[in-house]
Amino acid sequence: MSKTAAQWNATPKFPTSHFVDSRIYTDEAIFSEEKEKLFKPAWFIACHESELPGAYDYRLATHPAGVPLIVIRGDDSKVRAFYNICPHRGNTILYDPSGNAKRLTCIFHQWAFDSRGNCLEISRAEQGYQDRFKKEDAALREVRCEVAFGGFVWVNVTDDAPGLREFVGGAMDILEPFMQQPMEVFHFHKARVHTNFKLWHDTNSEFYHDFLHYFNRITGMMQPGYYERKYTPFPNGHATVGSMQIQYDKYEGSKERAVGWPGMARGGWYMVDLFPGMTYNLRTSVLRIDTSVPLGPNEVLIEFRGLGLKSDTPEERAQRVFDHNMIWGPFGRNLHEDLLGVTGQGRAMRRGTDSRYVIQGREENSTIHDEVGMRHYYAEWSKRMGRRAHAPY
Amino acid sequence: MIKTEERLAIEELIYRSCLALDAKDFKGFLDLCDTDFRYTITTHSPEIRRDMVWLDHDRKGMETLFTNLPRHNSDHSPLTRHATVYTVNSSENEASVISALQVFRTQLDGGATELFAVGRLHDTVKLPAIKLARRVVKLETRLLGYGYHIPF
Hints:
By secondary structure, chain A is an alpha+beta fold. Chain A is built from nine helices and 19 strands. In chain A, the strands form four sheets. Chain A has a seven-stranded antiparallel sheet with strand order 2-11-10-5-4-3-6, with no helix packed on it. Chain A has a seven-stranded antiparallel sheet with strand order 12-18-17-16-15-14-13. In chain A, strands 7-8-9 form a three-stranded antiparallel sheet, with no helix packed on it. Chain A starts with a helix and ends in an 8-residue tail after the last helix. Chain B is α+β, with helices and mostly antiparallel strands. Chain B is globular and about 45 Å long.
């Protein structure tokens, strides 16, 4: 029987941990708070070390809290991160998304900086500033930066936030054995979609939506071991998903993966979801990394990276690229479906649609269709936001 | 120097390939292709400073792709491909053709059309059969929103 307005708006018949108010996906004030309370103190993957192979190689990144960053490998090979903001008149210093720059020179007035953030030159400094302002006063703002967990460059814009190891805790233990060899990014693209960043993370945090994917239904859901995959929650809102053996040859045009991953069983698949918006997805021959940069309550920019091993032969790399593209490329079978799915959520939940609740009520002993991953995320969200996800006002 | 009639036939092949894909007439598209046909989408990422392959199939792979697509959940907004043949350079057995490509997407609800992607088609045409032997779509556009299942 269909519902009346009162029934539609009634509180779901679940414990309050098992649903959220859909206004947490649309409210501007909540979104602003999220940037301050969730993203600013969190560690964030800015890029991978393979994107900065040599001295002075740099990569621009936008931090989810909104800060534009330069990540650069210094003359001492150390990777550092700075605001991409000139301390003079607040201009952007570097414009191209990547490159090699021995001097970081602001085009506006030619103030120049080195790869350690020191100011090298202020144009006509003495004439204008006499001895009131010197190069030493004009250094770049450096943010905390570490290369870890598979060679990724992690940044944190809050100086007194807990350290990276403390933030991640044991969540990466499941993947660490498989990330001992140097890796290399071979794929990068962005998707800008009209949905809330949490909805993308939710999709990465629940496998019940495998019903959306013909590929996964055939190669995963109908195969032995699928329903034994387990979620494990970790402190700080992170969660992992255990492996199974994917039967790739069940999908026409696919076949058992010729290239695997060192240390991982054939056809394996592990996932790590990191609060508040990053995912490691190691599936058989490719590591995929998702990083979300929220642009508004109903808009998110997701960066997708595909990685193989630095030691790959051309044939191995070509196979990894093929495997990646079949499901995860912009023309791949699964990514398009996932992005369509969350765009549909964004459409249905935008302000004024009278969307009320999102139910996360499945309990299956923390196995693959249990929605514990999302519940765990929103418990952390509620704690950090000082709001209850099921009743945020 | 390529004969005018041959150039016109090659241009028509390129345009027919766009019409067939626009109409989701995959059999019609493959009928324009040689038995050794290969299709690739490439692009360059200035972010990671690498050339990337986003799709790569031989003829059998394309046939399988087209067979599988109806089983998937896809955006059903139609695409309109606009190609302009820029250059045709031919030898005895084949011609190399470079065309500009614009892809427009039209929303089913309301019919708003947006520019979806731009790039170039680098085609190899088998002569005298006038069949597509190789297509490399070199995309400039990399931000494709939620993407698309059907190749450009």
